[in-house]
Amino acid sequence: MTGTSRTPFRQWTRVRATMLAVACLLAGIASGWAIRGLHRQTAVNSANSSPAPAPHNPAQLKAAADAQAAPLIDELKSNPADPQLLTELGNLYYDAEQYPTAIDFYRRALKAKPSDAAVRTDMATAYWYIGNTDSAIAEFNQALTYAPDNPNTLFNRGLVKWNGKKDAAGALADWNRLLATDPGYDQKEKVRQMIAEVEKHQAMPSALNSR
């Protein structure tokens, strides 16, 4: 699903979708889901080859992202429109939960490569994290104009439709379309669970009214 040659982009977005499903199933589908998880490979300490401690608070996450971003920003000076560098920077700040900064880098990457559905999907989820549901859905919609059956875009758009708009019909349409167009999707069981939960939620008022 990535528009670049780097396969980790595909894995990161797929993992973010998976984490979104897990969070929803744990918290209850009607209460809202978290769309992402920290899934960048941890840096390895050259002295003992053991993973460096992961930051535990927003300030530490930002500081770590800034440190990792510094050499990429230096590279960017000689090629400020490089979509791969801009996407890497967006991913760093996304994983550090610095969503406005991530959005800025993603937007710049998309100016150079507007058809990258993976980047646009990640930017949409970042918009969701800052509470901008309408922009999130707009970016999902735009991503689907380039990749109409992108499973992760459909997965996440359905989540935002349901959690941000309480649009059960829209969410079900996206998830059923995902299953129809990508029957081998590796999170299909989670998608089926989500569909069942939304259908159960839809049926509740009818059951109450029938008493």
Explained architecture:
With 211 residues, the chain is mostly helical. The protein has a single domain, classed as Tetratricopeptide repeat domain (Serine Threonine Protein Phosphatase 5, Tetratricopeptide repeat), CATH 1.25.40.10. 70% of the residues lie in helices and 0% in strands. It is built from 9 helices and no strands.
Identify the CATH class. Answer: Mainly Alpha
Number of domains: 1
Strand content: under 5%
Cα-based radius of gyration, to the nearest Å: 18 Å
Query: Biggest sheet: strands, sense, closure?
Result: none
What structural category do the secondary elements indicate? mainly alpha
The CATH architecture can be given as Alpha Horseshoe
Overall outline? elongated
